Amino acid sequence: MLSERRLEVLRAIVQDYVGTEEPVGSKALTQRHQLGVSPATVRNDMAALEDEGFIAQPHTSAGRIPTDKGYRLFVDKLAGVKPLSSPERRAIQNFLDGAVDLDDVVGRTVRLLAQLTRQVAVVQYPSLTRSTVRHVELLALAPARLMLVLITDTGRVEQRLIDCPAPFGETSLADLRARLNSCVVGRRFADVPQLVQELPDSFEQEDRGTVSTVLSVLLETLVEETEERLVIGGTANLTRFGHDFPLTIRPVLEALEEHVVLLKLLGEAKDSGMTVRIGHENAHEGLTSTSVVAVGYGSGDEAVAKLGVVGPTRMDYPGTMGAVRAVARYVGQILAES
Amino acid sequence: MLSERRLEVLRAIVQDYVGTEEPVGSKALTQRHQLGVSPATVRNDMAALEDEGFIAQPHTSAGRIPTDKGYRLFVDKLAGVKPLSSPERRAIQNFLDGAVDLDDVVGRTVRLLAQLTRQVAVVQYPSLTRSTVRHVELLALAPARLMLVLITDTGRVEQRLIDCPAPFGETSLADLRARLNSCVVGRRFADVPQLVQELPDSFEQEDRGTVSTVLSVLLETLVEETEERLVIGGTANLTRFGHDFPLTIRPVLEALEEHVVLLKLLGEAKDSGMTVRIGHENAHEGLTSTSVVAVGYGSGDEAVAKLGVVGPTRMDYPGTMGAVRAVARYVGQILAES
DNA sequence: GCCTGGCACTCAACCGAGCCGAGTGCCAAT
DNA sequence: ATTGGCACTCGGCTCGGTTGAGTGCCAGGC
């Protein structure tokens, strides 16, 4: 087991390295932190920490840098979540208020988060299946062509075009619209498949085909993976790190463009509380030198989606976690109001 | 005026430089192209081209590279638009078919364009004001709270929440919905402000406040600059160029994140036909070493929005232009069908 | 047993010199 | 107008030497 002081040394190394981006040596450490011991002692501690795999040296005769395992220990045991300053809180509120619709909320959130953390921000749209049905609308665009519009309590709107097998009368349409709504409004989208199961049976024979078509489109829209959307921002912040660029930045940008990958990544995060995935803990290859800080957000107590940031493993974890948490809370509030 | 051969030399320089990314010298030129003259002659031509400002040398004793002016001449006079191969055409069609809604169409388009050109793709959503009204829906979420949903002929859907000054009865709502639709469906959104001007007058005194509120929200939604949306993709392709990265890539990424800038850029492009803006022709500072190839697309003969790519001035113009044009055509077709 | 000062060693990063070669400009000859 | 010849330039590369931060180890002290 590691002694108290060795943990302190690790904390100091992480903090210094995050600040300077340069490997930190024993002498510099004793100067910048009051550890109360000499460089030689620190060297011994460092050797021990290296044996345990918490730190490493890029080359012999260089300082130490934390390993993924070192950051993990730091995040779990040595660091808390740094609360935001009150000007920052006010800035968040000002920035987020005045959004006109959900797209706007999400857009502002991603910009805000990117600016606050100076890293790449990722915001997932509220999941359909985790939201509640506010309204289902059916519009006749042509005799045999409908548009289905789903509206959630979080303000998300999805629409689909439907080609009907047969023309569908205006009265049938009104009928279907009314029955559909009375059966699903206020319920969770996840339950919709079950709720509408027997709906076609109550219609005239000639309309059943169309009703089934409508329902099958509705169900398709709710399929996981398809129904998730996300927005990213702040990619310019990637250029702030490691000057060995093309190599570092390339795979990250590529990974960020694959929304499926990101969604999976966010999906792996715990539903409640904050999740930090460090370096190789991320399954995707392009992201093995980055960390992901993610948290769920929602209009109520339950998370309807996740948001977070992607940055180098060498990031300011307490500050980033604080910003992510604060933004998630405010977004939740905004959504609850709408 | 430049002789025929000198133009030929310029074309050769552009082609070689685009291919190799290295300054091209007189000797290499004569080897790779059958110009029928000796390197010395080419050197004279190069000196002339340099005097005219079409090419430049990075340092003394280096080869020449085209200037923005050189590319301009190349694009205007020396190069055509390279049509896509038929496998490429088929790939486009396959990729674009099977999109389920407008978001999907736009998303696929941006990925397609990025992949095809290996550059950064930018796709603008069909402009509201240039589209036609397919339907306007008003939903009561609460007694004094409505949701306005606009649907265009291109499949774009916009929604807004409305807080009413007073409760609004179901019959009044149905009334407003009906009158609103009968007055705007099939008309261009740009004309809507005028069309709805006198609508409040025909309502009972007590409902006029709400009707005006609804209309003002409707009009706000149609304000230019606000109503434009766009999607970008393929940013990872930026890493393929110039190994002097952080400096080159940073401002470009930043510019790409400022959608307002991009919208303005696209807005400057001609409505019909293809527009190529080279290097310093782009007003925005971050984009002075990039070129933008943009073209309008639409479901009919009129452009409802633009799409294009952003890449280094040193790009394959004929190929890029071919891809951009082809994609725009197919997207137009897809939109017309929906 | 833990801490400390001292010491020899390592090695990346930083010059500066020198070479190399692609490429140029100029000129005289065709 | 075109060409071959020639002297010149200069960025990029390699090589050797120096520097200094940092390490590991050890012997002595608390």
TrEMBL record, chains A, B:
Residues 103-321 form the Heat-inducible transcription repressor HrcA C-terminal domain. SUPFAM superfamilies: GAF domain-like, Winged helix' DNA-binding domain. Pfam families: HrcA (PF01628). Keywords: Repressor, Stress response, Transcription, Transcription regulation. InterPro entries: GAF-like_dom_sf, HrcA, HrcA_C, WH-like_DNA-bd_sf, WH_DNA-bd_sf, WHTH_transcript_rep_HrcA_IDD. One of its GO terms (biological process) is negative regulation of DNA-templated transcription. Negative regulator of class I heat shock genes (grpE-dnaK-dnaJ and groELS operons). Prevents heat-shock induction of these operons. This is Heat-inducible transcription repressor HrcA. It comes from Streptomyces kasugaensis. The lineage of its organism: Bacteria, Bacillati, Actinomycetota, Actinomycetes, Kitasatosporales. The gene is hrcA.
